[in-house]
């Protein structure tokens, strides 16, 4: 068959073993997954109540334009409905962006380590991937700017960055955006937006009116606790959205996912309480790292990347045997480190006491 050349040698994205498999393999009754930065508190009780009583007709196609969810998100953010694009998770939006803008002969600029789907999708499209190392765990925006040339089509700023959890603040971003050529799309991936508590950080939505080449990605998968429903969205200038929309699959969410996201959006109290609990959870990890002299990155998210002074894969396996699935830094371009989702207070306590045994 006439496969794209770049497909050869590529591996499917495999974000760790399923919990059931780990239970079976290690004979465990309980496994805690702290590997994919889901919300350890689940989703809003209002969503639960809604799901208990809902009677969706799943035999019909969903509204491809996601009108009801669109109205809810537009009102919530104070943007126009035409400034939004919905995806099957923000993964889908990343794929839509790369399909629309990347092809052989153009390049795309991103940080490393950063979220793997940017380079994965860019490679599928045959574009050149330009990876710029983080500096002290943060995006090196100056070096990223230098990496941009006339063939650059898309620049990715994961903010806060996965896997470091670090953030580029508003002023730094503003300086960067002023210098990026206006025909280069700048993607601000804010999957962890709801967890940010830096005082240096201001809401980036205003950028879309100032800069026609900015697109912001957000998701219901993290703080909203709806990863399985697969709802992500993009906010950008109307012309950018109109160009991307034809690339989107026609029914890329489900009727139920639309409904559930609307209910979740209405419960900001839940988001606030998760953010507060996450702040306390972060302190448990920071305390552990400081006690053991382990380097960690100051995180603005619900995960933390820290040094283990050991082979990350070994630590990953030892923790899996003990019932905790985490991410080895080797899989994240961060050898010698592990990335752990901040769990509930109890999960963190148990995890850290077991980790103490392993290190
Ligand atoms: N962006 C970042 C930075 C992420 O960490 C993730 C999830 N791992 C995503 C996007 C994709 O999330 P989803 O497709 O569930 O919205």
TrEMBL record:
<dbReference type="InterPro" id="IPR001917">
    <property type="entry name" value="Aminotrans_II_pyridoxalP_BS"/>
</dbReference>
<feature type="modified residue" description="N6-(pyridoxal phosphate)lysine">
    <location>
        <position position="222"/>
    </location>
</feature>
<comment type="similarity">
    <text>Belongs to the class-II pyridoxal-phosphate-dependent aminotransferase family. Histidinol-phosphate aminotransferase subfamily.</text>
</comment>
<dbReference type="Pfam" id="PF00155">
    <property type="entry name" value="Aminotran_1_2"/>
</dbReference>
<dbReference type="InterPro" id="IPR050106">
    <property type="entry name" value="HistidinolP_aminotransfase"/>
</dbReference>
<keyword id="KW-0663">Pyridoxal phosphate</keyword>
<comment type="subunit">
    <text>Homodimer.</text>
</comment>
<dbReference type="GO" id="GO:0004400">
    <property type="term" value="F:histidinol-phosphate transaminase activity"/>
</dbReference>
<keyword id="KW-0028">Amino-acid biosynthesis</keyword>
<feature type="domain" description="Aminotransferase class I/classII large">
    <location>
        <begin position="30"/>
        <end position="353"/>
    </location>
</feature>
<dbReference type="InterPro" id="IPR004839">
    <property type="entry name" value="Aminotransferase_I/II_large"/>
</dbReference>
<dbReference type="InterPro" id="IPR015422">
    <property type="entry name" value="PyrdxlP-dep_Trfase_small"/>
</dbReference>
<dbReference type="InterPro" id="IPR015421">
    <property type="entry name" value="PyrdxlP-dep_Trfase_major"/>
</dbReference>
<dbReference type="InterPro" id="IPR005861">
    <property type="entry name" value="HisP_aminotrans"/>
</dbReference>
<comment type="pathway">
    <text>Amino-acid biosynthesis; L-histidine biosynthesis; L-histidine from 5-phospho-alpha-D-ribose 1-diphosphate: step 7/9.</text>
</comment>
<keyword id="KW-0368">Histidine biosynthesis</keyword>
<keyword id="KW-0808">Transferase</keyword>
<protein>
    <recommendedName>
        <fullName>Histidinol-phosphate aminotransferase</fullName>
        <ecNumber>2.6.1.9</ecNumber>
    </recommendedName>
</protein>
<keyword id="KW-0032">Aminotransferase</keyword>
<dbReference type="InterPro" id="IPR015424">
    <property type="entry name" value="PyrdxlP-dep_Trfase"/>
</dbReference>
């Amino acid at each position: 068959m006439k496969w794209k050349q770049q497909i050869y040698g590529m591996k499917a994205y495999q974000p760790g073993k399923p919990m059931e498999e780990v239970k079976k393999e290690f004979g465990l009754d309980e496994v805690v997954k702290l590997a994919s930065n889901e919300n350890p508190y689940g989703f809003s009780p209002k969503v639960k109540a809604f799901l208990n009583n809902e009677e969706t007709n799943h035999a019909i196609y969903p509204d491809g334009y996601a009108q009801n969810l669109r109205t809810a998100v537009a009102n919530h953010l104070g943007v126009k409905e035409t400034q939004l694009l919905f995806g099957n998770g923000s993964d889908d939006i990343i794929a839509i962006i790369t399909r629309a803008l990347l092809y052989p002969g153009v390049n795309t600029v991103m940080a490393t380590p950063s979220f793997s789907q940017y380079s994965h999708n860019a490679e599928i499209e045959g574009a050149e991937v330009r990876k710029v190392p983080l500096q002290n765990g943060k995006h090196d925006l100056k070096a990223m700017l230098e990496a941009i040339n006339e063939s650059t089509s898309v620049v990715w700023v994961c903010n806060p960055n996965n896997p470091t959890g670090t953030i580029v603040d508003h002023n730094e971003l503003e300086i960067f955006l002023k210098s990026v050529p206006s025909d280069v799309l700048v993607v601000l991936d804010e999957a962890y937006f709801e967890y940010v508590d830096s005082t240096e950080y201001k809401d980036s939505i205003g950028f879309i009116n100032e800069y026609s080449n900015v697109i912001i990605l957000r998701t219901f998968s993290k703080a909203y606790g709806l990863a399985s429903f697969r709802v992500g969205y993009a906010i950008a200038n109307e012309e950018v959205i109109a160009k991307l929309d034809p690339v989107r699959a026609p029914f890329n969410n489900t009727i139920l996912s639309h409904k559930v996201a609307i209910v979740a959006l209405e419960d900001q109290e839940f988001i606030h309480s998760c953010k507060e609990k996450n702040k306390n959870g972060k302190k448990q990890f920071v305390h552990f790292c400081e006690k053991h002299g382990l380097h960690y990155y100051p995180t603005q998210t619900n995960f933390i990347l820290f040094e283990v002074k050991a082979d990350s894969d070994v630590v990953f396996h030892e923790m899996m045997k003990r019932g905790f699935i985490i991410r080895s830094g080797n899989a994240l371009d961060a050898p010698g480190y592990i990335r752990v989702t901040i769990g509930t207070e109890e999960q963190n306590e148990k995890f850290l006491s077991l980790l103490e045994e392993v290190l």
